[in-house]
Specification:
The complex is a heterodimer of chains A (about 475) and B (about 260). With about 475 residues, chain A is α+β, with helices and mostly antiparallel strands. In chain A, a hairpin with a 3-residue loop joins strand 10 and strand 11. In chain A, helix 2 crosses helix 5, helix 7 crosses helix 10 and helix 9 packs across helix 10. Chain A has four domains: about 140 residues, Cytochrome c-like domain (Cytochrome Bc1 Complex, Chain D, domain 2), CATH 1.10.760.10; about 100 residues, Cytochrome c-like domain (Cytochrome Bc1 Complex, Chain D, domain 2, Orthogonal Bundle); about 190 residues, Immunoglobulin-like, CATH 2.60.40.1190; about 25 residues. With about 260 residues, chain B is mainly alpha-helical. Chain B has two domains: about 90 residues, no CATH class; about 140 residues, Orthogonal Bundle (Cytochrome Bc1 Complex, Chain D, domain 2), CATH 1.10.760.10. In chain B, about 50% of the residues lie in helices and about 5% in strands. Chain B is built from nine helices and two strands. A two-stranded antiparallel ribbon of chain B has the order 1-2. In chain B, a hairpin with a 2-residue loop joins strand 1 and strand 2. Classes of the chains: A alpha+beta (about 475), B mainly alpha (about 260).
Amino acid sequence: MRATNVLLLLVLLTSSAFAVDVKMEPVKPTPVTANTQLGKKLYDRYCSQCHGNEGKGDGPAAEFVYPRPRDFTMAIFKVRTTLSGQLPTDHDLFHLISEGLPGTSMPAWKKFLTVNERWQLVHHVKTFDSLGLFKEEPVKEQVVIDTAPKMTDALIAKGAGLYQQKKCGQCHGSQGRGDGASAAGMKDEWGELIRPVNFTKSWRFRGGDRIEDIYRTFTTGFNGTPMPSFVDAIPAADDRWALAAFVKSLARPQKNAQVLKASFVKGEIPVDPYAKEWEGAEFVDFPLAGQIIQEPRWFKPMHDVITARALYNDREIAFLLEWDDGIQGADSVTVQLPTTDTGNVKPYFLLGNKGHPVDLWQWSAKEGGSRMTATGAATPRELGNLIGEGGYKDGQYRVLLRRSLKGGENEVSFEPGKFTPIAFHLRDGDNGEEGMKMSLSTWYAVLPEPTMPLTVWLWPFGIGFLALGGEFWLLRRMRRKCRK
Amino acid sequence: MMRRWTFYIALVVCLGFFVGLKFGIHPPIPASVLMIYMVLATLGILLFVAANEERFAAFLEPLKSVFEGRAPKVVQVLVLVAIPLLAGWGTWLRTSPTWDAPFEPRVVHPEPPSTFNLHGFPTETAKLKNPLRGVDPAQLEKLTNEGKTIYYQNCFFCHGDALAGDGHFANAFSPIPANFRDVGTISMLQESFVFWRVATGGPGLPKGATPWISAMPVWQNLLTEEEIWKVILYIYEGSGSTPRTWDEEVSHAGH
């Protein structure tokens, strides 16, 4: 295994170092010399819990996080400024430790450790290299990342063309949601499950989400993963910048809020989740965490966010729930609501508690709409007038759950201007999630937004006219005085 | 010569105050406080201007020229239109309905109950003492390390790799998980309090602290009493803080 890796490395080294439009410069010198003792002390304290005492990526937390912590013994690193297959520079490792890896449990250590401490960790991490590569063939040149060109529509369009032409969608999907035909079953160098990144989630770009970061990834590739360098496939640097601009244009940050506002619609609420009216409805991204309270505890959920919109008319309220999933599997979603108006005391955020039951609206790809009620543990109940419909398209689930505004027995009533607690549960079928193996949110609130009554204009207009009247009175008085 | 600019200087000073108060102070001051300061500043400027008759006349001159029709027509129209619009807009800002989340009062470190149930047995909070302290340093280090392992298999998802309350699950929760490096959390609490919070979690909070808001699990369901004490050893050691104690002797014995 190791011998083949070295071979592969050498092949990659020789094949990709020439022939293409990549500006190189000598590696910058390392500004801090190693203090072996301090390096080990810091590593044991801050890193060993995940990366293990011997740097094998097998610390006590390793089994509890996804993706798995890096095994340093093979000296394979993703985020680098060196050509594909090469070792990282010391500055690359320093950057990695300082900024962390977004979308993983590796934090940005610049918040907690001094510059000197981080350099000591760079030196220490290199000591785990079992093949002695850092000593024998340290990298001498690194890629120059120029200033990014301006993000123009033309550049993005050019990038979109390249995205198609170079078949990026094969892994990352036609809409960039990581749902390409080859997405399922991908493994990294260590045989661990790996998924193509979802380009719409800017907070999950391992190497950072600046256009320069994306360009660097295309140029250098992510060693140890199926993400190759594109310097051979897209030799022109301008083209790689265009592709980076296109990918950047797909990404957006989360839009979080405490309140999900439902707008009023005249007439029918569209039942088609792809209807134009839904596109216009205000959305909120609700971040999710693994359910680690009740057995079976779930530490490695795949879904980290659910996007919700809501609309209501004079009879009904409807929720449109969206979540991206690169591999369709058989997902399911739950909307949790209290069964009655609760005032200040909400039910326990995980399935309610004695005396404070919750109503669970569910939709699963396997069984469609269903409903449960829970006071700590869930039991099925009649659907009533709840309707759940959903589907999967282009790497994204969309589910519509709707019910009458007015609640019956053990059902909360939605009223314009009234806040109702709401929470979400999500299960990724492909990741083996079902039942309590899920990601969840705590309580938020949904608010059917009252239509603006005309009386709200009374004060502003009143005061405005009063000011106008005052002005003219003053005007007339002063001009008369002037004439006299 | 400067005198003819009195009005504009007053306007600029007033705006300067606003910009300074609004953007120059971190963390930002509440809007109501800003309002009080602005009223005071405006009054101060007006008082200064009105204190001298000549200055006051110069101050009023630009306004007079508009109202008496001496200013250019364009300026007259602009001013006369802008004043009612500003008045109306200001009123709209104050009276328009907004839909913020309902305010949920919350006590950060609520009074613990005098007794609570620990694995089914009533336990007096005040009498709780970390039984693992007071051992020899080598033993303490071993126990703390065991606490570290427990922390990284149960707590760090929320409370963070560096114990700063910023783990990879942290942003899913409101309120956010406690930051143990913050001097306002465990370093101002006694270990008995921390034990009670860990053992009974969010559901164990008294009514006044709006119990169900906290997502903190009831850890006595998942950890033994000794494991909880070990974790407590680690979160103090790892965050570089010491528990609050009443007794000088105990605080020395701890470290």
